[in-house]
Amino acid sequence: MRGNDKGWTLDRLLCTFALTLAIGAGWFYLSSHPRIKHQFVEPVSLQQIKDDYLTYNSMWFDGRLPKDVTIGRIYGDSYQAYLTKEDGHFVIRFNPRFNIAKGQADLTLFHEACHIKNWTELEEHGPNWVGCMRDLAARGAFDSLW
Asked: Is 90 helix (H, G, I), strand (E, B) or coil?
């Protein structure tokens, strides 16, 4: 323990203040400097996901999935996507936090399409759903995504 506790505490406070000031100045410089480009990635658009759903339905599901699926958004930390059936129509809500890149949105879309194909299966990720995903993989649906 130092003999002058008040001086030691004052030294620590001044160092903490100086460090906070230096970090703040660095952040301000980096966030406002015109030469530093800030990139904000937009998530895949709902229209793009809808178009891909129709394309993949034709290519990989032989057009057997319903065509009138609604694509929307969901927010939070719990789901990449959430599938419901409302008034007899499927609704897939995509979370933009997890589906920013097109490849990830496509994988999520295939995942949900297999749920639609096996909607009556009691187990959420049961053997029919697993079979659907394995079949897609074996036929090359994910080749450009993995």
From this structure: strand
Whether 133 and 114 have beta carbons less than 8 Å apart is answered as yes
E strand or H helix that includes residue 31: helix 5-32
Single pTM value for the model = 0.71
Neighbouring CB atoms inside 10 A of 107's CB total 18
User: Is 143 part of a structural domain of the chain?
Assistant: no
Residues 120 and 51 placed together within one structural domain of the fold: yes
Q: Which two tokens stand for residue 125?
A: 């990720």
Please report where in the chains the tokens 């930390």 appear, as a residue.
77
In a domain, 146, yes or no: no
What's the domain range around 77?
46-138
Q: Judge whether 97 and 77 are in contact, CB under 8 Å.
A: yes
- Give pLDDT, residue 110: 97
The answer to whether the CB of 57 falls within 8 A of the CB of 34 is no
146 vs 141: CA distance, rounded Å: 10
Residues 126 and 66 in one domain: yes
